[in-house]
Amino acid sequence: MVNFHSVTASASDSQELLLSPEMLSSEAPASDVYVCVHGHFYQPPRENPSLEAVERQPGAAPFHDWNERILRESYRPNAFARIMDHNGEILQIVNNYESISFNIGPTLMSWLERHDIETYRRILAADKLSCDRNDGHGNAIAQVYNHIILPLANERDKRTQVRWGIADFRKRFHRDPEGIWLAETAIDQDTLRVLIQEGIKFTIVAPSQVQRCRQLATADQAAGDWHEVGGGQIDPTRPYRCFVPGLPAGQNYIDIFVYDGPISGDMGFSDILQSSQSFADRIGQAIRGERKDAQLISVATDGETFGHHRDGAERALAYALQHEFVDRGWKVVSYAHYLNLFPPTWELELKPVTAWSCAHGVERWQSDCGCGGGGEWHQQWRKPLRQALDWLRDELSEIYEITGEELLKDAWAARDSYIDIICDRTPLNIERFFNQHQHHELTQIERTDALCLLEMQRHAMLMYTSCGWFFEEISRPEGTQILRYAARAIELAEEICGESLEAEFIDKLTLAPSNIPLFKNGAGVYRAQVQSSRISVEQVVAHYAMSSLFHTYHREQRLYCHTLIHQDYQKQTMGPLTLALGQVNIVSEITQAKGSYIFAVCHFGGQEFLCGIRPFKNRLAYARAKDAVLRTFAQGSMVEIIGTIHNHFGEYTFNLQQLFSEERQHIIQLLSQNTLEQLNQLYTQIYRENYGVLMAFHRENMAVPRELQVAAEITLSHRVINVLRRLEQDLSDIDEHILAISTGYLGELEGIAIEANHLHCHLTLPKAATLLEGLILQTLRQTLRIDPEAARQGCTLTINPIAIQGIQRLITLGGNLGLNLNLERSQEVYYHYTQHCPSIPSLGRALKIVE
After folding, report:
1. pLDDT digits (tens, 9 = 90+) for 465-499
2. Could you say which of 198, 294, 330, 732 would form a disulfide bridge with 32 (CB–CB 3.0 to 4.6 Å)?
3. Where are the domains of the chain?
4. Which residues lie closer than 8 Å to 225 by C-beta, 6 or more apart?
5. By C-alpha distance, which of 420, 405, 394, 411 is closest to 163?
6. Centroid of chain to Cα 3
7. Which of 9 and 600 is assigned the larger pLDDT?
8. Nearest Cα residue to 303 out of 554, 535, 109, 572
9. CA-CA distance, 810 to 808, in Å (whole number)?
10. Which CATH class is domain 11-45+64-350?
11. Distance (Å) of CA 324 to CA 5, 283, 284, 332
């Protein structure tokens, strides 16, 4: 846990811990001091391009994937940041996004919206609050769409990336962005020109990116002399104006903030975020006591630093923002707000082409410059990879222009507007888009072609996501991911024009040497890690067919980014054999491409499956194929069944290994249930028959034979899981009287916990913690349900004390069962209600909240 210097149990106690004026004398300013903390929240897009979904990533365990892990460690904790006392009990829960300047990558925000709407809404609410508080100048700024290094992009991609970033920001925050974060703060004159033309007021750079600065001319005085600051000597405590030649007067500049490089570096690579005092002390060292005018101490770092890279740093940040900075007389501000208060009085000139994470300009994303190196590993692959992608981009652009002009009034204007569909793929919004951009009234097939073209262009930009070059090896997940986007763009191009670009692209990748002998070069990486991950429409249908043996699907079923509608479905079982046949229509939610297929899938027992897929031709052909398989199945001959499926449905054949990995693992678990159930019955019998022997060993303080101890642990674990399953089932359709329903189960579980504790059992209880956490949260919400208007008027809430005791019992039960319950959401609900209704009966001790 973070060790806070000034976190206390009460306001009166906190006064005793404030630093005296003498202690602050070394940093006491002669002018107002403003502090801005900027968080660059971003994760590269990780979706499988064929599924538009993030697949399980074992390296992120115990979480499903890295997005989910960082959500739990950083994004959500910053939305509900704890300020705690020395006993680890919560004094406040605050929203850090309300006080910091921040950008969140559009692709990450899209993922957040789908996977944690509560955190997503809290981020939006934080910006709205900061706008209301600061005359419309909110904390949030935009970001170029998918983190492309803009100086290395062509003019068209520069502009689309900025326009997409602005449009995505506007859709989410309901206002125009004032500032924008550039990927890796990579910048050049052409990028600045695009930002100005697109209405951006300011951006942020590192001190090393500035060449020189001077005082601006005023009505009373000429411009000052230029000061060379190319070695990073720029004064970062003020904003600067940057003029760009070739633009009309009055529209030829953008304002620049320069973050404090040393402090920002310390945030990422030292321990100053271990406590709010250390953080404030380090910021205090940058204050210039001789200054007469206002000064800004601004720092910028990856937002994931707060909680993911630095465990508990979001709590140190919360206390610093809410108390530490204020106690020292500093004003917390965002860049946008500060710029409104203090327009620039100095100007600067930037170095020609630079970025914050490369000492060689932007060479990290196109050459073997050594940045991000892994010791003995080279980065000679970087240049050939970029050259291959540049070639592919240009080939795709030609296809887009030639085909697009037949479908769209202005293909490139349509691409700029395609962000509206990316943000909202509802039929009405797609209809609106085509009404604006179609060349003529498009048929459904032409619409699909247009959407395929636009998707091709989206993936042509996704393949430039900066992290693909950031590290030392092309075969890392980041490099593999951008190649997957390239493969998807190639696939879409082939569907549209029938021309294959893949062979030549692979040939160009042979020039990108890998550090790993297994791959040899980029072509080896592409063949081994990209082509194998490509998923066809037929594979989606096969997944649907095989998994239908274990799931009851609705007639219309969404599967990743496809909707499947079965026109016919039949399942039969005979002994160990299970057969399913059907006809299904499939529609892509991305391109609206449609297909119709027939399938036959047979499970022969164990992990042996055969699935045949064939495009639907007509009802008669399907009826004949179906009858042939059913007749053969009735005879019960596995050999005959396999032959018949191959003959009538076998244009494409699949087995269990072709299922998507998560569903494949789920089915393997289901297939093992019978065996596990038999083993559980056996262990239960051993436990019951030898209970007296077990007790004798414990009475005599003798070591229990491992065989008997294992039988006890497996039996009691199985009993707990069974009780929890029954409880979950009984509560699945009930919204009220949760506690009354669960009381009987609670008694049973408490009894098992006592028994397990007495026998020194270590129970294995997968998903038990999640179920209990959900039950506690659900019960708490029901118990604290009050009328919002009554809450605003300072209501008096009367709650049945039995309900409070029940919640306490649930929490205690988790501890007795050895479950490490995560009570964060329950804490947040309870804290919220205590702010609106102070008469709530005490649950603070159980939830570790100081009331």
Report:
1. 999 999 999 999 999 999 999 999 999 999 999 88
2. 294
3. 11-45+64-350, 378-390+398-533, 537-658, 672-765, 767-851
4. 214
5. 420
6. 28
7. 600
8. 109
9. 5
10. alpha beta
11. 9, 11, 11, 11
